[in-house]
Amino acid sequence: MADLYDDDDFQDFVEQPERSEHQLNAMVQERSNYVRNAISRGSFAEAVSKALEDPPAGRDPQTSKDKNLLVVMEALAAPRPADIPAVVKQLPPFQLDVLMKFVYRGMAFPELYNSSVLLAWHEKVTEVTGLGSIVRVMSDRLTV
Length: 144
Hints:
The structure is a single chain. This protein has helices spanning 21-41, 44-52, 62-77, 84-90, 93-107, 115-129, 132-139. The protein has seven helices and no strands. It is mainly α. The mean pLDDT is 91.
């Protein structure tokens, strides 16, 4: 009975659209342009929300995930620390979980991304969602 839930058959449990690397990279590039435009206008909540929208995840190509990570990190680094709580409050709950996934992914590369910025985001998201977001992210098998 335990073999019924084998890791190799995980795709049966998660509905994820089939997207080619070319499609994903085009989507990430379009998102990147939109995020940069929003940042230049000072619309940080809009930039973060767009950066978190439909990210490459799970079995999508790692190169697409890495390119998308750069877009999200750019959006997270843009606002001042004092602006982070306002941005977090504007995000819907499912995007807060996605944001937390990216915070942890960014923390895995302290040489590339500012850990103090990521910790500030982590703190503000946890204030809004409680520990539930951390548990959901740690137990979710669709990595970003």
